[in-house]
Amino acid sequence: MKNKTILLGGALLASIPMSGATGAGGGGGSGDGNLVPMETIAVPIVDGAKLQGTLHFRLVLEASDGDAAIRVARDMPGLRAEALAAGAEFSRLRVSPFLAVDARRLSAEMTDALHAREPGISRVLLVEVAARPN
To answer: Which residues of the chain have pLDDT under 70?
Structure first.
């Protein structure tokens, strides 16, 4: 029973905005740390009618303010569905398991897709990406 409680608690924490998160980079920008993580997404890499591999990626959504971060966390299932659809389209058009993934373009396309659904998302951070053959 204790293990189930810990897992449930971890799932709840994953949907709460991480206010005040800072990195060692010291970069500019909004910097107030309204970051909302999204679980890893995996979409197939299809060439023609043949399954070539799988594209795995993990996103962190940067909200413009605290209220937007709360809205983003509440709408996570819908945003995840949007990210899945955008990732599948990106994978279909631009990914091969034998070449490097254009992470900059994937991040830009995710930002466009998710910002269209939730205007409070200022950008999408791509924190992990890998294309693996089957």
So the answer is: 1-33
Map out the domains of the chain with their CATH numbers: 2-18+32-133 (3.30.479)
Would you say 80 and 24 are in contact if contact means Cβ atoms under 8 Å apart? no
Element (H, E) at 46: strand 41-47
The pLDDT, as a whole number, for residue 49 is: 87
Rounded distance, CA 58 to CA 133, Å?
18
Give the model's pLDDT for residue 90.
97
pTM: 0.76
What three-state secondary structure class fits 96? coil
Candidates 79, 61, 82, 56; CA nearest to 18 is: 61
Tell me which amino acid residue 110 is: M
- For the chain, the residue count is 134
CA 30, 31, 36, 41 dihedral sign is positive
What per-residue confidence (pLDDT) applies to 48? 85
